[in-house]
Fold:
Amino acid sequence: MAFLLVVIYIAFIGLGVPDSLIGSAWPAIHTEMGIPMEALSVLTLLISGCTVLSSLFSARILNKLGTAKVTAFSTAMTALALFGFSMAPSFGWMIPLAVLLGFGAGAIDSGLNHYVALHFKASHMNYLHGFYGVGVTLSPYLMSLALGNVGWRSGYRYAFFVQAGITLLLIASVPLWQKTGSEEQQEEGKTVNLTLLQMVKKPDVRLVWLIMLATNAMEYACGVWGSTYLVTEKGFQAKYGALALTVYYAGMSIGRLGSGMLSGRIGTWKRIGIGAALIAPAVVLMLLPLPGAATGIGLFFVGLGNGSIYPNMIHLTPHNFGADVSQSIMGSQIAFAYIGVMLAPPVVSAVSRLFGMKVYPILLAVLYALMVIALLCFIRRLKKQNRYNPEI
Structure:
């Protein structure tokens, strides 16, 4: 099981690799292709929308094919999409590649999160998402190197090589999953597939959806538009904007890995609270009219605080709702997380067209307030039902 856990961690690096590429490369892409800056929202909308669909149907697909095969195949899909982006002669070619990328990501996210939530400790869940942070930190770093030398297309090719290597490892590891397959099948045999309508009727589920939507909208608003904001409003060069995203994602990785290391000493709910508290001063720092370096520091602390909220909420799913329905609710949580991912870029784009990119920090503050309010309401409901355990 120890080696399989390492493979799962590496698979989550592969999940993170594509997510931060488009944001760091976009200032160069839209300039080269002569397309509007706001066209980025089309791609992010497609990627996120397809990820939402993939997540919602993940329970049935995973039950039929198993986590190992779905993860390997889906990672191969994302690798193919990255190579396609590097070769795309125009914006139109990127549209079907965005669809391919989105469908691949949703299945990986749902399957691995549920597997780890059932079979491993809270620390492992945080480490898992810490390795996602490694992937999303690596990508803008590779892109910043490419932008400073050979161009954004080479940045996508670098990422493709990483993703292709992870795909080969996952294919080779399928027998490892089969050795633990009896355990996984026992858990899947207890699974109750809830319909979307059944979940909508549950107030607790709706609150969790709102938390996941807000925290991931904030994460993606930083990842997609953070570089552009620094370039357009703070005078950064494109390569330094991409480097600032590396710092942001490094903060997210540190937050997740740090949360994992603290899991034996501090309960999951307390770690969520610490993460939420760290974001407040960061948002204030970004709201103030300070130099670009201060904005970069603010982005780092947003990543540091927000990074631990998503994996810890995911880990609590079986505890909050029961293992029998956790796969369905897990898929729906991830779907709403990606709805946040899907909505954040076009909302930032639409508002910035009306008022300019200077309103970007205000939008982050609104998302933060929404997440905190939903989180407090959810905890209050759990306390009333005697299901809140701060020591978990």
Q: What stands out?
A: Residues 182 and 188 are 10 Å apart (CA to CA).
